[in-house]
Amino acid sequence: MSGRQRTLFQTWGSKVSRSTGAPTCNSGTERPQSTGISRARFPAVAEAAGAAEVEPESDDDVLLVAVYEAERQLNLENGGFCTSAGALWIYPTNCPVRDYQLHIARTALFCNTLVCLPTGLGKTFIAAVVMYNFYRWFPSGKVVFMAPTKPLVTQQIEACYRVMGISQSHMAEMTGSTQAFTRKEIWSSKRVLFLTPQVMVNDLSRGACPAAEIKCLVIDEAHKALGNYAYCQVVRELVKYTNHFRVLALSATPGSDIKAVQQVITNLLIGQIELRSEDSPDILPYSHERRVEKLVVPLGEELEAIQKAYIQILEAFASSLIQRNVLMRKDIPNLTKYQIILARDQFRKTHLQILWESNKA
């Protein structure tokens, strides 16, 4: 046995007695006697009320008290953090160690981090390392991985199991098709959850999700965390119950502009950004040249008929706008949504200016 490991009785032996008196409790709350625990959890073996003699406790009773004490101490002290497990963090070496992954994983363990890596360079691997360590550090806590779609949820649970080997009996996948009462049972019995953000929002609002027990929240496709998207709702709800949880956000494209990136950072409580491109020095050894081959696939008769009907409808509205010089582009079949929005904004700006000048006159 290593110097860091201790048995239950070595850890809690000073607080667990074989006598019939109640074990002490540092928090000042009243602890039941060990025989009381037996009554509460195992009524079949409880002593009859008013019994004249209290029989000595068995080793099983003492073990139950020890387990009870362990759970209570982990929940009360340091937010459930296990100091013996937390003395170190684990990184897998059964596959080639990449310096950038090691560095990012270390950062993400100790700070809310937005990880921006090109596709295929190991964002899921980093997430699995962080999740596994929080799974160890908080034995009574929950670790949550959120992905925006069902296929991504399924893909991530398989990848995380392959990377770190968390026991499948402790993991569960939840989507909108999972019944509400089943999800409540899963929240109480599992420790590592993979789900869509909409499901988590619903469970938080219903009280099915034990928000205070969540210690690590991993967010895939984090660039979606804008406005009132479900990712933002989840974080806002969690902070109502606890501030003691780590956020790891993953994205290949964090945002289209600085404003969008700042929204993601604010909405997800990000404190550190780990950004790499395919040209980054520590990424180059693992980036491979790509060959892009373009294949043009014809629509087919059915899709061509739908396209023709759509263009006819579009022409009925667009031709009127073209006649009034609202739309400058006359190639209606190739008209895009973006072009229509630009034309609308320009129309509003022009007419507001005319209206302002006429009122001024």
From TrEMBL:
Residues 104-272 form the Helicase ATP-binding domain. PROSITE patterns: HELICASE_ATP_BIND_1. InterPro entries: DEAD/DEAH_box_helicase_dom, FANCM_DEXDc, Helicase_ATP-bd, P-loop_NTPase. SUPFAM superfamilies: P-loop containing nucleoside triphosphate hydrolases. Keywords: ATP-binding, Helicase, Hydrolase, Nucleotide-binding, Nucleus. It is found in: Nucleus. SMART domains: DEXDc. Its main location: nucleus. Pfam families: DEAD. It comes from the Eukaryota. GO terms for cellular component: nucleus. One of its GO terms (biological process) is interstrand cross-link repair. Residues 12-36 are annotated as: Disordered. GO terms for molecular function: 3'-5' DNA helicase activity; ATP binding; four-way junction DNA binding; four-way junction helicase activity; hydrolase activity. Belongs to the DEAD box helicase family. DEAH subfamily. FANCM sub-subfamily. PANTHER family: FANCONI ANEMIA GROUP M FANCM FAMILY MEMBER, FANCONI ANEMIA GROUP M PROTEIN. This is FA complementation group M. The gene is FANCM.
